[in-house]
Structure to design on (894 residues):
């Protein structure tokens, strides 16, 4: 296999996961536990039974969307580190609108709430895109700042104007008609139908990137902005638009969390899922299909880790696994070289 | 006692012997059992078309690539370089086509970078300056040791690269297309330096496809073609007039093979050219006389700033008629880049007017200009002309990708895109015939063909053509020149910007000379001489020159 073969896009992440599991098992051994037992528990926690699987899928949904958000940005040559803030804004505005849609039938209320969430995320991200296009302000800096603004704005909203009840700051529930009907109900767990929307979003992103003129322009601007501009593609327009599309995906993640899972805005709703999107996009190599698998992998590790904790292995082991996977995928040239070397030595 | 290497009896002392070198890349045989013999203390030229395998061969000598088969001997010792560091330790130095210098460091800092002069643990700048000054004086390589790289001309940057190799103890210098970026005067200076280096016992390997140069500077020539050596020549025996000047052999390469190994002295540029492209090449194109039509493009008192905010174009006015080629001659960096960028909508116009097809297009975007029928062959094809990560078929629609039939209600029409690529690959003889190959994987000449093919297929009314043959071989140059004349015959107005005076002279109907952002005068090729235009390029106005 040549170092630039397409197959590597699949081989490298898979090899990275296996290698990461092996290295983590050494760490588990070092803390005096049995890795086989730990991983058995991990698998059981993630896939042992319908409830576990439902949990994994609930966790997968937002990760696919934030992964797509960051991945789309990467393809367009912008580093959207603000998926977190865009997700919060999407969730917050979707909540505000969802609360007020009581009299509206679900056929209208559901798409409206979803769309509003996407628009909120898109708008939030477009601020950073516009600033970059007009003034050259780097989007990493501006999106990080926008993350904090979103975080504090939302905590103000759920502690003051929207606050209900006591304990965790939270908003009232959104209207029944704006809630996403669950795909399956297993005991107390409602498996969100958001997963279908997330998969559809991945397919749409694939079509946009590979089949449309917009995709051609977005990727051209990402690969070589000079040549793109030479070819009549407006870079400033593209930056703003790419950030908006990226933000819309993150906003959708937030809206679906509200509509399908929590049914209200919680202070802890995003919980770093926007940042996890960066890892998901990296592991998934910015490809929509890869991102779906990466999101599923990360969600499985998360749900499985609780079970692992029961057999005495700290759940933070999965952070080690995740870190190693990202490192190896990001350094995929190194992995390719090592794999090719090995083959050469053997033959 | 002549040394014997791996069973080969050698009659002379050789600095470099490469024996049976074979290097494969996916789908390409870049070097096919290439033999290269470089005598100690000679200037050895390797010539061949783009993609002949010259640079690949040298990268193996320099340790950047490793041969699949074959042996390399340096000063009689068999070597296996793991990387350039080992090659440097064996006294090999390479000056690449693209300089490897840090723009915001000084000349002295750049030279010592990587093996710095030290005082204790600290970098000793004074010692570095002294060492560089000594080297510069010893070999007549004039440089300003304290100047920053970004502030000095390309010719001096190249001298810095040469000093860098000498500082690292190079006995064998490889220069990859060293004159591609130089003005004729700078090239002449470089040759002086090379002769001096030779006199002090250095061996020089000189990659080129400019035959006149090879005749002038080299002792021996190896001709390569299709990855094979096709000829090995003594330069001095090819053209007696040049014997006195320097020369010894030529190896000609083509498509990874050495296609010729001629004694430069026994051959002539025509013969080398034939070995390179496998057929006779007309070095000068015939231009039919033609009455130009009405004015299609006009610039009035144009002012443009460069990246640093300084005036780069100062009040340029010019007109281009349909079916006319207007050439702009000038030394690189005299405002040509900024002029072209302003005309094509890539750079802001500070003052003045641009009129295209009767419409004031000042401030129009590149897309609007393209849609109106302007095409642009950019000087830097890797930066502007190509998206190297895109396959050729996508590169061939850039600029028209948003229009029917390539795009229909925002969806790409892959069938038309592929058909377009197939047609253009055939028409422009782009090789290899793989439209799905990424733009970056084509050789330089074929990348340029992709750009030219795309721009011509736009059916333009007016074209800006910048350095169309930079770094191309004779075969490709001939092809591009003929294509430009074909556009002229089709009544396209053409603005041609080139550093190659010969190109300007053989193609242009009118010649404008630019110096420091101003037009020094207008003339016609049949009414003037290289010397007169050369003087204008150096800042003399036409009136002074004519006097």
């Amino acid at each position: 296999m040549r170092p630039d073969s397409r197959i590597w896009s699949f081989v490298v992440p898979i090899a990275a996961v296996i290698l990461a599991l092996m290295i983590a098992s050494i760490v588990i051994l070092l803390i005096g536990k049995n890795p086989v037992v730990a991983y058995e528990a991990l698998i059981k926690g993630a896939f042992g039974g319908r409830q576990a699987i439902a949990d994994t899928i609930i966790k997968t949904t937002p990760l696919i969307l934030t992964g797509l958000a960051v991945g789309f940005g990467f393809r367009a040559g912008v580093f959207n580190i603000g998926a977190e803030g865009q997700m919060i804004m999407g969730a917050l505005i979707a909540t505000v609108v969802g609360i007020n849609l009581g009299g509206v039938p679900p056929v209208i209320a559901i798409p409206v709430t979803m769309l509003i969430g996407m628009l909120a995320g898109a708008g939030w991200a477009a601020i950073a895109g516009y600033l970059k296009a007009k003034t050259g302000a780097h989007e990493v800096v501006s999106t990080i700042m926008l993350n904090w603004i979103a975080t504090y704005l939302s905590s103000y909203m759920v502690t003051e104007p929207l606050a209900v009840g006591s304990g965790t700051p939270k908003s009232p529930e959104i209207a029944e008609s704006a809630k996403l009907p669950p795909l399956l109900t297993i005991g107390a767990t409602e498996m969100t139908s958001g997963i279908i929307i997330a998969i559809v979003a991945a397919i749409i992103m694939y079509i946009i990137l590979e089949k449309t003129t917009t995709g051609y322009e977005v990727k051209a601007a990402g690969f070589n902005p000079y040549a793109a501009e030479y070819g009549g593609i407006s870079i400033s327009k593209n930056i703003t638009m790419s950030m908006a599309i990226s933000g819309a995906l993150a906003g959708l993640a937030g809206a679906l969390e509200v509509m399908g899972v929590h049914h209200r805005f919680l202070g802890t709703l995003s919980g770093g899922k926007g940042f996890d999107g960066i890892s998901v996009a990296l592991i998934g190599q910015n490809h929509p299909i890869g991102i779906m698998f990466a999101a599923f992998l990360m969600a499985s590790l998360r749900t499985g880790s609780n079970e692992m904790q029961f057999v005495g292995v700290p759940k933070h082991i999965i952070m080690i696994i995740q870190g190693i996977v990202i490192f190896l995928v990001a350094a995929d040239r190194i992995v390719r070289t090592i794999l090719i070397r090995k083959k050469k030595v053997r033959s | 006692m002549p040394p014997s290497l791996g069973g080969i009896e050698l009659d002379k002392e050789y600095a470099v012997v490469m024996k049976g070198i074979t290097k494969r890349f996916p789908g390409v045989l870049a070097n096919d059992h290439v033999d290269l013999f470089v005598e100690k203390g000679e200037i050895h030229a390797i010539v061949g078309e783009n993609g002949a395998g010259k640079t690949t061969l040298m990268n193996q000598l320099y340790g950047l690539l490793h041969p699949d088969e074959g042996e390399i001997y340096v000063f009689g010792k068999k070597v296996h370089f793991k990387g350039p560091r080992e090659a440097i330790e064996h006294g090999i130095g390479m000056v690449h086509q693209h300089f490897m210098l840090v723009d915001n460091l000084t000349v002295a800092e750049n030279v010592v970078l990587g093996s710095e002069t030290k005082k204790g643990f600290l970098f000793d700048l004074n010692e570095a300056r002294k060492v560089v000054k000594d080297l510069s004086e010893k070999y007549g390589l004039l440089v300003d040791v304290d100047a920053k790289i970004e502030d000095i001309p390309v010719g001096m940057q190249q001298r810095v690269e040469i000093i860098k190799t000498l500082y690292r103890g190079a006995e064998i210098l490889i220069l990859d297309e060293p004159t591609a970026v130089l003005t004729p005067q700078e090239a002449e200076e470089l040759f002086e330096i090379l002769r001096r280096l030779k006199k002090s016992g250095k061996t020089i390997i000189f990659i080129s496809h400019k035959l006149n140069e090879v005749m002038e500077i080299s002792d021996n020539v190896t001709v390569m073609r299709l990855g094979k050596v096709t000829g090995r020549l003594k330069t001095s025996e090819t053209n007696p007039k040049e014997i006195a000047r320097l020369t010894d052999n030529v190896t000609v390469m083509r498509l990874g093979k050495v296609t010729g190994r001629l004694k430069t002295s026994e051959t002539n540029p025509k013969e080398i050219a034939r070995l390179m492209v496998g057929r006779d090449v007309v070095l000068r194109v015939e231009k039919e006389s033609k009455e130009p039509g009405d004015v299609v493009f006009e610039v009035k008192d144009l002012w443009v700033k460069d990246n640093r905010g300084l005036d780069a174009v100062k009040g340029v006015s010019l007109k281009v008629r349909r079916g006319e080629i207007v050439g702009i001659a000038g030394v690189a960096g005299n405002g040509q880049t900024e002029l072209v960028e302003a005309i094509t909508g890539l750079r802001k116009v500070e003052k003045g007017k641009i009129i295209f097809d009767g419409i004031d297009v000042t401030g129009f975007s590149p897309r609007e200009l393209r849609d109106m029928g302007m095409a642009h062959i950019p000087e830097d094809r890797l930066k502007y002309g190509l998206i190297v990560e895109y396959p050729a078929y996508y590169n061939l629609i850039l600029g028209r990708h948003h229009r029917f039939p390539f795009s229909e209600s925002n969806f790409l029409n892959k069938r038309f895109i592929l058909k377009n690529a197939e047609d253009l690959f055939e028409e422009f003889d782009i090789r290899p015939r793989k439209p799905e190959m990424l733009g970056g994987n084509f050789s330089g000449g074929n990348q340029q063909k992709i750009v030219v093919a795309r721009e011509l297929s736009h059916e333009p009314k007016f074209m800006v053509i910048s350095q169309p043959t930079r770094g191309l071989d004779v075969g490709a140059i001939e092809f591009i020149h003929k294509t430009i004349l074909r556009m002229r015959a089709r009544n396209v107005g053409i603005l041609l910007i080139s550093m190659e005076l010969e190109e300007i002279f053989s193609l242009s109907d009118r010649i404008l000379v630019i110096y420091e952002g101003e037009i020094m005068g207008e003339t016609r090729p049949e009414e003037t001489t290289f010397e007169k235009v050369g003087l204008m390029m150096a800042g003399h106005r036409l009136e002074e020159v004519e006097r």
In short: The longest strand of chain B covers residues 14-25. Residues 323 and 491 of chain B are 4 Å apart (CA to CA). Confidence is low (pLDDT under 50) at residues 239-249, 276-283 of chain B.
